[in-house]
Design a protein that fits this description.
CATH topology: Rossmann fold
CATH architecture: 3-Layer(aba) Sandwich
Pfam families: adh_short
Protein name: Carbonyl reductase
Mean pLDDT: 96
Number of domains: 1
GO molecular function: oxidoreductase activity
Keywords: NADP, Oxidoreductase
Bound molecules: NADP nicotinamide-adenine-dinucleotide phosphate
Strand content: 5-15%
Oligomer: single chain
Family: Belongs to the short-chain dehydrogenases/reductases (SDR) family.
Distance between the termini: 48 Å
Amino acid sequence: MENKIAIVTGSNKGIGFEIVKELCKRGVGVVYLTARDIQRGQKAVQELNREGYFPKFHQLEVNNKQSVKNFADYLKKNYNEIDILINNAGVINEDFYKTSYEDSKYIIDINYNGILLSEEYIYPIIKDNGRIINISSDCGHISNLKNKYWIERLTKDNLQRDDINDFLSWFLQSVKNNTIDYNDFVEDKILSYRISKIAVCALTRIQQKEIGKNISINSLHPGFVKTNMTKGCGNFTLDEAADTPVYLALDIEQSVKGKYFWFDKTEQDWTDPNLKLYCVFDTIENQLQGPK
Ligand SMILES: NC(=O)c1ccc[n+]([C@@H]2O[C@H](COP(=O)([O-])OP(=O)(O)OC[C@H]3O[C@@H](n4cnc5c(N)ncnc54)[C@H](OP(=O)(O)O)[C@@H]3O)[C@@H](O)[C@H]2O)c1
């Protein structure tokens, strides 16, 4: 464990911060807490230092090409290769009830395109037998969709990048042109977030097929967790939420590849729309509104 090098994106707070802490606790030799904002990142490191954990820090804005490239160059120069990358950084709809074009583009840019940049610059320095974890959501399960065409296209065995690109363009165009058909989705709340996370799960399957070097790439839903993203609502604490990502990073068999995991460490079939693993917004709404 002490020889391993791990990176967690968007880890100045929330689930990412807790994953960094758990990796330190488990004795991973070098753990990088990264943040888009240097001050927020350094403050988070200081907080962990006070608790007796000593992660390193590097600036990383996942949707900024130069920032991702700088970090990858730095890692290559200092370590040559790394073992674990947890793509955790993410954002949700500004307004949970509204789907606007600018907000949708921003969400997709960070949640999905951010992982593409990470693939371009950081994946090439991941070691043989390394591990990548893409933090998705229950919002990312295929059962969030009701549109049969997209369900079939995204779950087919020979899924291609163009299938995901077309899916995202179809969604963004319909938002832009105000032609969105809400019957295509299981619910209309936090819709762009759902689309971005569905794309992340689909991308995980493609990346796994392409990566080679016996690297594993899995995606997961960490549970409904009390963080800034959920405005403090949730059924899980941060340390409960870090459990499955850390399990996938350190404990599961290396042979488990390209799968989708639930917060209880069970593997779920991402391609089965009948599983009804979608996010039920009522759960969030009830907690947002507080006791009646
Ligand atoms: N909480 C839940 O119930 C839940 C459920 C399912 C999935 N998830 C997923 O879990 C992951 C972590 O979410 P969370 O609940 O911990 O949210 P959070 O508390 O809002 O933390 C999100 C983190 O991502 C960072 N981030 C956002 N955009 C970034 C960018 N462009 N570059 C680098 N870092 C960026 C944020 O940094 P700043 O402080 O600078 O904004 C923050 O550190 C996300 O992928 C989320 O979608 C969460």
